[in-house]
Design goal:
It is a single chain. The chain is an alpha/beta fold. It folds into 2 domains: about 280 residues, 3-Layer(aba) Sandwich (Aldehyde Dehydrogenase, Chain A, domain 1), CATH 3.40.605.10; about 190 residues, Aldehyde Dehydrogenase, Chain A, domain 2. It is built from 15 helices and 20 strands. The chain is globular. About 55% of the residues are buried. Bound molecules: NADP nicotinamide-adenine-dinucleotide phosphate (NAP). NADP nicotinamide-adenine-dinucleotide phosphate binds next to helix 8 and helix 9.
Amino acid sequence: MNIVAGISNEDQDMFDYATVSHGLYIGGRWQPSSEGRMIEVVDPSTEAVIASVPDATLADAASAVDAAAKAAAGWRETSPRKRSEILRRCFELMTERAEILAALISLENGKALRDARSEVAYAAEFFRWNAEEAVRISGEFGLAPSGANRIIVDYQPIGICVLITPWNFPAAMATRKIAPALAAGCTVILKPASETPLTAYALAALYEEAGVPPGVVNVLTTSTPGPVTAAMLADQRVRKLSFTGSTGVGRMLLAEAAKHVISCSMELGGNAPFIVFDDADLEASLDGAMVAKMRNAGEACTAANRLYVQAGIHDAFADGLRKRMAALHVGPGTHSETECGPMITRKAVDKMNRLVEDAVARGAKALCGGAIAEGKGYFYPPTVLRDVSPDAVMAHEEIFGPVAPIMRFDSEAEVISKANDTEYGLAAYIYTRDLARGMRVASKIEAGMIALNRGLMSDPAAPFGGVKQSGLGREGGQKHGVAEFMEAKYIAVTI
Ligand code: NAP
């Protein structure tokens, strides 16, 4: 399969390797599903089946936990320096293979190559960052208030971790968990999304090449994630569940984990407000809106979901956004000129349609887009809606696609109240030239992350995560990411 022009033979070999099933990756070996079943992988740009991967059973899941348990002591006892060097090598190999990994992501996810390239750089950075964190994990030492003893706090790897990731960032959502887990000294079982398993398997081969020992990272795909995950969580050796995905599935998994009192990190859905005040720099706010809305064709948890624009700048902003959105080149992600690729599935396209029809029925006007494109592929055109009612379903549900609903507001107090009127609290964007106002509003918005006069906030060096029903815990950042995979052990000692 020749997907990207101008790539090296070595890259082409890796690409061909990644699109052929080598099996589930368990204990450093590639093996078929114990029942021989397969899951088809579809190119969302063409609807053609491009590969098949094994469909893991409960027996395969048990093998993966066994493999992670067998490797646990060796990895935990590997020196932090050695762990760090292996993680650094993962970063280097991902960087060397960036172009081919981007092509693979683009093929199975549909995102534009330019977005896939950014994802690879972001995903690789988790290895570099956590290579640096691995050698800086430290404990605490103090005197008890009574003076009777010393308090020593030692941070230890939490144990075997089950990691579950979504399809929208097939590389980055996995490395954001694997890198800190390995830095902490844990072994893991990754279950990637069924729509985008190829990147996860290609990366597994790369980790092996970087020196990650057999069993430290295991990867399995399954069409029955509920029972397979429940079986792994019921195994007493599993001590951690780290999940990225929808709030609905997150709630179910929290209930499942509660049965066994397993530590959970949850990176869930969002409904980000994008607030533009009258005094904002119009061009900068439009640039920011395009990034916040259209990175990954809107399929991002941090995507701007509700654009609140103050009355004085509203019409100019709406017109500017219409021009930029209408000018986007829509096409297969793997084509170099594409700026907006397809949605992940037909179901996702139908959802865009349902949300737009609902908003229009409640009084919204489509400034561009607004109707399903004909032909093969799961395409939905970049769409701008104005005069969207606060009652529209899209004001409350995660859109997760290239639809930008604009809502007018008058006062600061009003927009803060509207922005917080949601069960979600992942990300928010604020545009104003008045820094004091920006900081004041940022402190009142209920979200784990705020971008002030920026359209992007994700950074491996900063704590990523949400409040309210957008999640529990943080990924990345100084200490936060690794801390999710460690447990404090307190030792009282008299000296
Ligand atoms: P999803 O339907 O919740 O699926 C996420 C993962 O969970 C997939 O691997 C899926 O497997 C698996 N899964 C589904 N049902 C399960 C069950 N009963 N037990 C165990 N695992 C199960 O979410 P998605 O549609 O892939 O991703 C989009 C969502 O992820 C959005 O809500 C988005 O906001 C959120 N997200 C959040 C962040 C963040 O950092 N906060 C980042 C990215 C995405 P299958 O693929 O096999 O169904």
